[in-house]
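[recover] target loaded
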């Protein structure tokens, strides 16, 4: 499925009206909204709908009512001296954030901004029909080559259940991706209503295992990211990133220079990303966020999953962690050095620490999902292939249907999962 952001821009005649509405809002609210409008074609449908909903909420206010709502924030901006700042209205910049944070009125400003957004969003919700909630799914896999700690489930949500998988639990992942006779794979089960949208299904992999199990037909129905497949692009991106001066004052310019889609000429995108502008932009944003996603596979998996949850609110996520190498001596991960290039020492797998990373970061994905209202309708299943066990957290009102003490075969678990999605 090819995405066409330019066409999407042309098909959004309301954007000019949105810009005019933004001009009626306090100055410090404008950058984030204007930046989203300028990137409209590479926003995910959830982001577009959220922005449209907010702007429609603004429209529900008469000029006098909007003035009354925002007048405290306008007055606060006057006290802060915003009109004398070098403040960008076009983009959310680090310089903007720095100036706001240095103000003695910063805490009060945050409260006022939150009040305005909550009021506008409430007005938007009141004018929007309610939609029926459906079960969402997060599937996490801790692969068999990681010596999963015995305490893997200790800190998870107490509402959950540990279940035992009889037989080879690795078969369950294959069933998820390929399906079984009479029951399609999860990727094709996911779009239960409406048209297929790739951002509604995410497959995120530390290695390249999931793509190898996925049928070509299903590939177009999902956003597929593999840390291993992105290696050529990662190496080039990391080299460009490390050319930039480590100067805070230059950071906004550095990020501005790295964000444009000049990466296309490199020819380094993997096939599953190359024709998807939104997904390419997502990867660039991810790598610029400074969170370790560029150099640690499991950090990439967790952060990509968390950002996908925040920005796309998918119905289905299949997430597979993996093995990472040990950091090499006399290299620096703090400044994102490419350890394969700066050290001649061979790469060495780090199974114990990879297992610890994966167990902790898998739980972080669930915690990220729990932050959003959709988390209440989310079924989370984390499978430890090393232990042939899993931990399942069910949406409110759902039940396993069998005793957690009874082992369940991979095909039985998959059939149950399909029934949960279709219910």
């Amino acid at each position: 499925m090819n995405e066409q952001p330019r066409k999407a821009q042309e098909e959004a005649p309301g954007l000019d009206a949105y810009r005019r509405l933004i001009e009626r809002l306090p100055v410090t609210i404008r950058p984030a909204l204007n930046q989203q409008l300028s990137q409209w074609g590479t926003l995910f449908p959830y982001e577009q709908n959220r922005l449209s909903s907010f702007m429609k909420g603004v429209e529900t206010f008469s000029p006098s009512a909007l003035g009354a709502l925002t007048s405290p924030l306008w007055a606060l901006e006057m006290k802060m001296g915003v009109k004398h700042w070098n403040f960008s209205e076009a983009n959310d910049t680090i310089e903007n954030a720095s100036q706001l944070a240095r103000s003695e009125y910063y805490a009060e400003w945050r409260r006022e901004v939150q009040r305005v957004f909550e009021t506008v969003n409430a007005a938007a919700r009141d004018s929007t029909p309610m939609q029926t909630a459906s079960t969402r799914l997060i599937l996490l896999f801790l692969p068999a080559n990681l010596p999963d700690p015995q305490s893997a489930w200790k800190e998870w949500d107490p509402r959950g259940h540990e279940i035992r998988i009889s037989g080879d639990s690795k078969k369950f992942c294959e069933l998820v991706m390929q399906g079984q006779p009479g029951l399609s794979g999860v990727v094709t089960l996911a779009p239960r209503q409406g048209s297929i949208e790739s951002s509604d299904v995410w497959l995120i992999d530390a290695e390249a295992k999931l793509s190898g199990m996925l049928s070509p037909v299903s590939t177009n129905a999902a956003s597929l990211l593999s840390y291993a497949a992105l290696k050529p692009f990662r190496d080039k991106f990391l080299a460009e990133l490390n050319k930039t001066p480590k100067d805070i004052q230059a950071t906004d310019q550095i990020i501005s220079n790295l964000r444009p889609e000049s990466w296309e000429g490199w020819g380094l995108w993997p096939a599953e990303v190359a024709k998807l502008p939104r997904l390419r932009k997502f990867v660039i944003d991810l790598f610029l966020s400074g969170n370790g996603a560029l150099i640690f596979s499991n950090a990439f998996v967790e952060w990509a999953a968390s950002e996908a949850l925040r920005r796309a609110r998918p119905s289905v996520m299949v997430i597979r962690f993996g093995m990472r190498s040990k950091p090499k001596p006399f290299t620096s991960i703090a400044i994102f050095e490419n350890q394969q290039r700066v050290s001649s020492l061979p790469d060495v797998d780090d199974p114990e620490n990879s297992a610890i990373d994966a167990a902790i970061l898998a739980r972080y994905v669930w915690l990220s999902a729990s932050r959003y209202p959709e988390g209440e309708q989310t079924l989370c299943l984390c499978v430890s292939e090393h232990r042939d066990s899993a931990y399942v957290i069910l949406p409110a009102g759902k039940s396993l249907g069998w005793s957690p003490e009874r082992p369940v075969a991979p095909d039985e678990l998959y059939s149950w999962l399909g029934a949960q999605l279709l219910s």
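[recover] notes: The CA atoms of residues 334 and 343 lie 15 Å apart.
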